[in-house]
Design a protein that fits this description.
- It is built from eight helices and four strands; from the N terminus they run H-H-H-H-H-H-E-H-E-E-E-H.
- It is an alpha+beta fold.
- The chain folds into two domains: 4-103, Peroxidase, domain 1 (Orthogonal Bundle), CATH 1.10.520; 106-177, Glutaredoxin (3-Layer(aba) Sandwich).
- Strands 2-1-3-4 form a four-stranded mixed beta sheet.
- The longest helix has 17 residues, at 23-39.
- It is elongated, with a radius of gyration of 22 Å.
- The mean pLDDT is 92.
Length: 178
């Protein structure tokens, strides 16, 4: 779950860039920023450090913005985060922005758990059925768990569709013992 403060910053940025048709550019800039922070643990640590004054963090941000060629809107967001000493949230803001963009594009992620790996036909059929049920485009991540015996457990957004044999057997056991 994304930090609610980071989500507010991301939503504000999204609202601004949507009005100027700059959503894709902001998406690219934030993805590049997130990659930079992931590949530079020293920079991420400096952004998070309470020992470094906000003015020095702001200077780093100013240099980063001017050298990277990122959009003015993302640059202003980073400046705002630096001024408020919240740069440690930069990756969370990037994640929240990506989630907001997925919501706008009506793309929902689904985690699929099966007892055996799915072949391409079953994977496509399942994605189509889940997309039809949710009214969105589905991106799936798959996991194999032999403990479910058979069937599928799909978590789409926050909704769990449990069609596993294990769950069905548990329901039968409860009905028989009651």
């Amino acid at each position: 779950m994304t930090n609610p403060i980071a989500r507010r910053y991301a939503t504000a940025l999204f609202d601004v860039v949507r009005k100027i048709n700059g959503v894709e550019r902001a998406e690219q800039d934030l993805a590049a920023l997130k990659a930079l922070l992931a590949s530079n643990p020293e920079l991420a640590a400096a952004f998070a450090s309470a020992a470094i004054p906000p003015a020095k963090k702001r200077a780093v941000v100013d240099a980063l913005v001017s050298q990277s060629g990122m959009s003015a809107e993302v640059g202003r967001l980073l400046t705002l985060l630096a001024d408020r000493d919240r740069l440690e949230m930069a990756s969370d803001v990037a994640d929240a922005f990506a989630a907001r963009l997925q919501q706008e594009r009506r793309v929902v992620s689904a985690e699929i758990v099966t007892a055996v790996p799915l072949d391409a036909f079953r994977r496509d059929s399942l994605a189509h059925a889940l997309g039809k049920a949710s009214g969105a485009t589905i991106t799936m991540t798959e996991r194999v768990d032999p403990n479910i015996i058979g069937g599928v457990v799909a978590t789409v957004g926050g909704t769990v569709f449990d069609g596993s044999v294990t769950t069905q057997l548990e329901h039968m056991r409860r009905r028989l013992t009651s």
